[in-house]
Design a protein that fits this description.
The chain is an alpha+beta fold. The protein is built from 50 helices and 49 strands. Strands 2, 8, 29, 31, 32, 35, 37 and 39 form an eight-stranded mixed beta sheet that branches. It is globular, with a radius of gyration of 37 Å. The two termini are 37 Å apart.
């Protein structure tokens, strides 16, 4: 001790006065990184995709800038300068704060999957870049690398058909409607691209082609290094020793750091000290060793020391200088196990503790956030950090920044900005309805007049009388009016009509109507079209019962009888034959023929359908409001109708209570007078599916008169919009300025009938409203030469007073007047009126140049991406999408638009802005338009929370925004400083602090007391704010996780915490990542992981019943290889998952029973182009992708089931085959092959697994196929399997399944493995596998496993071996003989999960997998439940899913079975012994005589493999730098 103090004194003297002294010892870091499977993608292209998400104009503007630059994209040393060029070009379209977000996006490589997706589409098309062909054009199906040849193909009409395009494609503005499509596959910035781009953009401007750009890059040897994930080193329990004693030969292939680099040890840099004092080297080495030894010791802590660790950590953090608190918070959470002991000595300030506990109560009650939770609030939006990844956070931040920056540009600041930002525009969205007092509706009943309801009370006050919950009130009033709008001949209609018939039959208080949407073609008759035939039949029957209350109901029954007699769609023969049976004396020609008197109501129905804005059938309306389309199936329809009845009842009760509705009112008239009932509905207004937004925040100094066409083309998109907005002289009802909260830009070619009609409807509506103003934007067709009406409109709106312009244009644009002006029968002077100086007007017309129309057309093409001549309406910057040629947009639509805008945002914006006089300026309508335009881009979202605490003095980390003059994010994090959430939140906040201007608060929600160590793991989150470059200018290999200063004695397990939809696997590691023990390692542990797949998830249901089609199989592939992976649908939520990578994929039903019985009826969340028969899915993002599929049974297959006993479809690819070695042709009967499933993790268990396999093969004569769970296998085993398969003659497949996000997650690796053993048996294996045997890795087989396969399970889905009960000394550990298990088993045996046989056909047929998952979901919420998950779950479910008890001699284990029974044992299991805690390896060598023989044999086989591997990897080491450590 005296010597130690002497050394410390020397060090103290040496260190005194030395600046920035650190310590180093020989480092033993743990490093790991994650890369993609696909090759490197250029940052330049990723930046282009970032801008494409902003808007199309920004993308093409960026492309134009890059195309003009002379850059060498292929030279790696240029990468840094190219990155600077990229940012400079992007900054033309982004604010400085948005550029920072762009840098983070590029650092995270967010758009890399999109570039790879385009490359894969190019490969599918047969396009690969080469030296001689750097760019390839696809001209209507013909490929060429030559620009001149491309021009010739275009001039020749293109031939072929236009290439298929997707929503993700980039169309050069203005060419979408061209018949010739040219897809360019090239890389932006290359000379080949420049040459093609110039030619193609010129052809678009000439109106000849639709030019689509798809990135296509040359494959580089490097991969994309990823970030946005966490890496954990969990301290492993050492109760049972499970480490392999095989010596690891570390070739140190690829390291993230030099081994010679030193790391800090308790603040000392010993290399510096040694260089200053070479004579003290020996003493310094001893002192360094002492410090490191003490640092690496992790002595157990007593319970009293653990109690206040959260509070003590909070105290230490808050005691640090303000600027260091967030870094200390992160450091504490990520390295807690080695810091815990030092925290014990920290005294907790009572003031801080009281503040934390008071805040804790408030946070829990108001925000439902507990100390165990981790939450981040970004501008009040809540994110649960247990489930939120950085990609979701960044997406939200980007949207918020766009809105905040836009409002700031408009001069909105302070409270007004915050209030507008937090304004929830989704809450006030009401359900608009259509007036149902329409003769097109055929009412089947009338509650008020029909005899069936005459005994009911007719008083509205009955609504106020109490009833049982959920009970329908029988009142003789038409309170609930249900209208079905459907094509009568379709099978989807039959289900709904049969249900509504039951409403009438059972006297439900619902009035039912039907609008028969049939073909309006007047040349067709009943004999030609089944729908018309059903309409004629309905009208005939109704007329037959004329005069009766139930005439229409009788006609309805006639149609339901037809539905009951047919399967699938109804045909004309079905109708006529049924009619002939019912009315044999009636001539069919009179009813269904050309002169039928019963073919009436078709036009009325079509008018109603058009007014209601219905485009898909069937639809249902309750009191005029459309019911959600997704609920219109047999399973859900009745429930949704009853829910709507309950909701309407509450509205009616309030009206009766307030005296607004009484017996004097006609109920239907009263309902139709409600403010949400409109004369017409329009999906374009009420839905945002076809919506795009234009940026109204731009500023331009030049007026429109000062701008030439060329100078206008050179403006940015936002500047173009500003120029157009500034030049608008709005048409209004009155001349005086007032607030008009709706600004409508009418975009059209006014020299077309459709264009004039659209503007006329807007102008007519101005008579009714002083809240809207109109500006005409010219989108002239290149073929219109005269432009007479366009000129009249332009001069009128620019020179006449607003009210006069409205009156004048209303006359001129009227259809008959316009026609007379065109044919010359009337002149412009014939429409002279007060306020119009006709001579001056005509003079202006004559002097008006075409430049204004060219400028407007450029704007429509470049900014609105609207093809020439097309029409649209832009409401406060929201473009409603190009109107179809026959589509009408009439006065009633403008009325709906005004009402919609007013109710969603108009009123709220004005309430906020009224207090900000300076913000509003002179033109309040302009300000209203621009603010609304910005806010509309904000996604409709849940409400926001104002995180305000009573006290924040002692327990809240506060960081102020770096730029107080710019709008700042309000970011609040709430978590316990020593929790798993803190490990992730800390590094995320450190990066956000760099990237966004933000006020950050971290509320330390520390738990008051602990009974165990709160954190048992080290953690790193891999994230960098900007891409890193080497001094040479080359991009670094990328970010990685690095752990230093770790204790050497504990055993650590490495776990990756990647986003939910990532399938990640280790591809390089010589060490056992399950059992890292640094004291056994020379210089550190390195591993490399790969993003193997991106998960495509989905939910599938039957269209008619709404139930999941259990056992249905989907396949995923491309056009060249239609079946690459496949999967099975679960009954739980109809869930399925498929493994994919970036590209365009085809989703199909698997050939066989799935495709024979079912067909895909509808799908959501896919990228299927219009008119495509296939379901296409584009994988282009790291974010989750979920599809919803509805399937229907094929005609005549309604009674067939997927899961049957015989005639199962044969095999094929399965969803997770990665490698198979097989000597058979695949034609062998599956019954002749034994299928064995096993799981292993860690080198020791993989060693056991290899020995188990060889023992099976030695004793089994039948061919054997092993199935291994790929999720946990090490690279060494995956590499060795082909060698072993060849040597010992077996087949194998690696199966893989991602734990579904909706199923309760396990966090401990061992429990995750247990879950995989039992929870997914029904979906892991192909349907043609009839039986599978699970064999634990640590077993030795001494009998023919075929005998176990042949065991009769007596109808049970699986068979397990019961626990042995012959070894008496272990009796006290037999927990199943007491307490819960004794009562639950009720005399049955408790079974061991180390060995079991599954009859997969029976297992699937009785939905055993779904039952097990359902029970697991309930039990696993309790942390004390399912201690041995894989074993406890099937034993717990023994009453619901029967277990067949297998003979005892099939499994012997020394722990539970006596020595005498070992002789007859067929399989020996190395169970853990709770008494001796003997190590597995020692037990194996002691208990199993043949174990060493197997072990040595396998080692000999693998020796050659290891030699080959070492030769391959020699010289592969390279230095990598440029990372950010978090």
């Amino acid at each position: 001790m005296r010597r130690l103090r002497h050394l410390l004194g020397i060090v103290s003297l040496v260190c005194f006065g030395i600046q920035d002294v650190h310590c180093q010892g020989k480092a033993k870091p743990v490093t790991t990184h994650l890369s993609t499977k696909w090759p490197h993608t250029p940052l330049l292209l990723e930046a282009a995709e970032y801008l494409a998400e902003e808007n199309s104009a920004a993308f093409w503007g960026f492309v134009e800038i890059i195309a003009k630059k002379d850059i060498k994209v292929e030279v790696r040393e240029n990468e840094k300068s190219l990155f600077a060029e990229t940012l400079a070009a992007a900054s033309n379209f982004l604010t400085p704060s948005q550029v920072k977000i762009l840098k983070l996006s590029l650092s995270m490589r967010i758009y890399s999957p999109k570039i790879e997706m385009f490359r894969q589409i190019a490969l599918d098309r047969g396009v690969t870049p080469s030296k001689t062909c750097g760019a390839t054009a696809d001209v209507n199906g013909q490929l060429t690398c030559d620009v001149n040849e491309m021009k010739k193909l275009v001039e020749g009409g293109g031939g072929g058909t236009k290439p298929v395009t997707y929503e993700v494609d980039h169309h050069f503005p203005g060419g979408e409607n061209s018949k010739i499509g040219v897809v360019l596959y090239s890389e932006i910035g290359t000379p080949d691209f420049r040459q093609f781009h110039e030619a193609l953009s010129a052809l678009v401007r000439e109106g000849k082609i639709d030019y689509v750009l798809r990135h296509n890059i040359k494959v580089l040897p490097r991969k994309v290094r990823l970030s946005g994930y966490g890496v954990e080193l969990a301290i492993k329990s050492t109760e049972y020793k499970a480490q392999d004693d095989t010596k690891v030969e570390d070739d140190r292939g690829q390291q993230e750091d030099d081994d010679d680099q030193e790391v800090e040890v308790e603040g000392f840099l010993f290399s510096k000290l040694e260089s200053l004092h070479p004579d003290k080297t020996e003493e310094l080495n001893q002192f360094r060793k002492h410090i490191m030894d003490s640092q690496h010791e992790m002595a157990p802590m007593k319970v009293w020391q653990l109690q206040h660790l959260s509070m003590q950590a909070a105290q230490r953090i808050m005691s640090a200088p303000e600027e260091e608190r967030l870094s200390l918070f992160t450091h504490t959470a990520q390295n807690f196990p080695v810091l815990a002991r030092s925290l014990v000595r920290t005294k907790v300030d009572d003031k801080m503790k009281r503040e934390i506990l008071k805040n804790q109560n408030q946070i829990s009650s108001q925000m439902d956030v507990n100390p165990s939770d981790g939450a981040i609030f970004i501008n009040g939006m809540y994110f649960d950090m247990d489930y939120t990844d950085i990609y979701t956070l960044l997406d939200h931040i980007r949207t918020e920044e766009r809105v905040m920056g836009g409002l700031h540009k408009l001069g909105v600041q302070g409270d007004a900005l915050r209030n507008l930002l937090t304004m929830d525009i989704s809450e006030s969205k009401q359900d608009y309805g259509i007036d149902i007092r329409d003769s097109a509706i055929l009412w089947m009943n009338n509650i008020e007049t029909d005899k069936a309801y005459q005994k009911w009370s007719s008083s509205t006050t009955e609504l106020l009388k109490p009833t049982y919950p959920g009970m329908l009130r029988s009142i003789r009033k038409n309170f609930h009016n249900l209208v079905i709008v459907a094509e009568p001949s379709k099978s989807t209609t039959a289900d709904l009509i049969q249900l509504v018939e039951s409403f009438i039959t059972h006297n439900a208080p619902i009035r039912v109507g039907w609008v028969m949407a049939v073909n309006r073609d007047q040349t067709l008759r009943g004999f030609d079209d089944a729908g018309i035939a059903m309409l004629c039949a309905f009208n005939f029957v109704a007329l037959h019962f004329e005069g009766r209350d139930d005439a229409h109901y009788k006609a309805l029954q006639f149609l339901t009888n037809i539905y009951a007699s047919v399967q699938g769609d109804v045909t004309v023969d079905d109708v006529t034959s049924h009619f002939k049976k019912r009315y044999p004396s009636t001539d069919l020609e009179d009813v269904f023929g050309e002169d039928s008197d019963y073919d009436v109501g078709r036009m009325l129905s079509q008018d109603f359908v058009e007014k209601a804005g219905i485009s898909k059938f069937p639809q249902a309306l309750m009191n005029g409001v459309l019911l959600p389309e997704k609920h219109l199936n047999a399973e859900e329809f009745e429930e949704v109708v009853l829910m709507e009845v309950m909701r309407t009842t509450q509205t009616l009760q309030r009206a009766v209570y307030k005296g607004e509705l009484d017996d004097r009112h006609d109920v239907v008239d009263w309902l139709m007078s409600l403010p949400n009932i409109m004369p017409r509905l329009n999906e374009r207004i009420l839905s945002t599916k076809t919506t795009s937004y234009i940026d109204l925040t731009g500023v331009v100094s030049s007026t429109m008169k000062e701008l030439s066409v060329d100078s206008f083309r050179n403006l940015k998109a936002s500047e173009m919009t500003a120029a157009i907005a500034n030049s608008c002289h709005y048409i209004t009802t009155k001349n005086e300025p007032t607030l008009r909260f709706l600004t409508s830009w009418i975009v059209a070619d006014f020299d077309t009938i459709e264009g004039r009609a659209l503007l006329l409807e807007a102008i007519k509506y101005l008579r009714e409203s002083n809240s809207m103003r109109v500006c005409a934007i010219h989108n002239s067709s290149p073929f219109s030469e005269n432009k007479m009406f366009s000129k009249i409109v332009e001069v009128a709106q620019n020179t006449l007073a607003p009210a006069v312009a409205r009156q004048f244009l209303a006359k001129i644009l009227e259809k008959d007047n316009a026609k007379k002006i065109i044919d010359g029968t009337k002149k412009l002077t014939d429409f002279e009126m007060i306020g119009v100086d006709m001579d001056a007007f005509q003079a202006r017309l004559a002097s008006l140049k075409d430049d204004i129309f060219k400028i407007h057309s450029t704007y429509c093409s470049n900014v609105l991406s609207l093809p020439a001549g097309e029409r649209t309406v832009i409401a406060n910057g929201r473009a409603l999408g190009a109107l179809r040629e026959e589509e009408k947009f009439v006065q009633e639509d403008f009325g709906l638009l005004e009402k919609y805008v007013h109710s969603t945002i108009g009123e709220k914006i004005m309430d906020i802005l009224n207090g900000e006089g300076s913000v509003l300026g002179d033109d309040i309508s302009d300000m209203m338009m621009k603010v609304a335009g910005v806010l509309q881009t904000k996604p409709q979202s849940k409400g926001r929370t104002n995180v305000s605490l009573r006290s924040e003095q002692y327990s809240v980390i506060k960081l102020q925004a770096k730029d107080p003059n710019m709008p700042a994010f309000d970011i609040v994090a709430i978590c316990d400083p020593v929790s798993k959430a803190a490990q992730k939140i800390g590094p995320v906040l450190l990066v956000l602090q760099e990237v966004v201007n933000s006020n950050i608060r971290v509320i330390l929600n520390a738990r008051e007391k602990h009974s165990e160590m709160p954190l048992k793991s080290f953690y790193r989150y891999v994230l960098e704010p900007v891409p890193q470059f080497m001094e040479s200018g080359e991009l670094t290999a990328g970010p990685y996780a690095k752990f230093t200063g770790l204790p050497e004695s504990p055993i650590l397990t490495q776990n990756y915490h990647a986003p939910e939809n990532w399938l990640v696997e280790v591809v390089e590691s010589v060490y056992d990542l399950d059992n890292i023990k640094l004291e056994n390692v020379e210089s550190g542990v390195h591993s490399e992981f790969e993003l193997e797949y991106l998960l495509l998830e989905g939910h599938c249901f039957e269209q008619s019943s709404g139930n999941p089609p259990r056992g249905l199989q989907f396949t995923l592939g491309n056009r060249q290889q239609p079946v690459m992976v496949d999967t099975i649908v679960m009954a739980n939520l109809g869930y399925f998952q498929l493994k994919a990578n970036p590209g365009a994929w085809l989703l199909r039903l698997r050939q066989g029973r799935s495709a024979d019985i079912y067909t895909i009826a509808s799908h959501e969340g896919t990228d299927t182009p219009a008119g495509s028969a296939d379901v296409e899915i584009i994988m282009s993002s790291f974010r989750s992708q979920v599809v919803k599929i509805r399937v229907a049974k094929q005609p005549g297959k309604q009674n067939m089931e997927l899961l049957v006993d015989d005639n199962e479809e044969s095999g094929g690819l399965w969803n997770s085959i990665t490698s198979t070695f097989s000597s058979s042709s695949g034609e062998e009967d599956a019954d002749e092959k034994v299928n064995i499933f096993s799981v292993a993790s860690g080198h020791l268990y993989e060693r056991f697994l290899r020995i188990m396999m060889v023992s099976v093969l030695r004793h089994t004569k039948t061919p054997v196929k092993f199935w291994f769970l790929k999720n946990f296998l090490s690279p060494s085993l995956k590499n060795a399997l082909p060698l072993l398969a060849e040597e010992f003659g077996f087949e194998y497949e690696l199966v893989q399944y991602k734990w579904p996000r909706w199923l309760h997650q396990q966090t401990e690796k061992q429990r995750i493995i247990w879950g995989y053993k039992i929870l997914f048996l029904d979906v892991l294996f192909p349907l043609d596998i009839k039986k599978i045997i699970f064999v634990d890795a640590d077993q030795i087989v001494r009998a023919d496993i075929k005998d176990l396969n042949n065991e009769n399970l007596d109808g049970a889905p699986y068979g397990f071996v019961p626990f042995c009960e012959s070894r008496k000394e272990i009796e006290g550990f037999r927990f199943w003989k007491q307490g819960y298990w004794r009562n639950h088993l009720a005399g049955r045996r408790y079974h061991i999960s180390a060995l079991f046989v599954v009859d997969l056909k029976k297992f699937r047929r009785i939905a055993a997998g779904d039952r097990l998952r359902g029970q697991y979901q309930g039990l696993s919420q309790d942390p004390n439940s399912l201690s041995n998950l894989d074993q406890d779950l099937p034993n717990n479910m023994i009453h619901q899913v029967r277990i067949k008890s297998l003979p005892q001699d099939w499994l012997w284990c020394e722990t539970w079975c006596d020595d005498a029974s070992k002789k007859s044992a067929k399989i020996i299991d190395l169970c853990n012994n709770p008494m001796t805690k003997e190590a597995k390896l020692v037990a194996a060598q002691r208990i199993i005589e043949e174990w060493n023989e197997y072990d040595e044999k396998i080692k000999g086989v693998l020796q050659g493999f290891k030699g080959t591997k070492s030769n391959k990897t020699q010289g592969s080491s390279r230095h990598e730098s440029g990372h950010v450590e978090l």
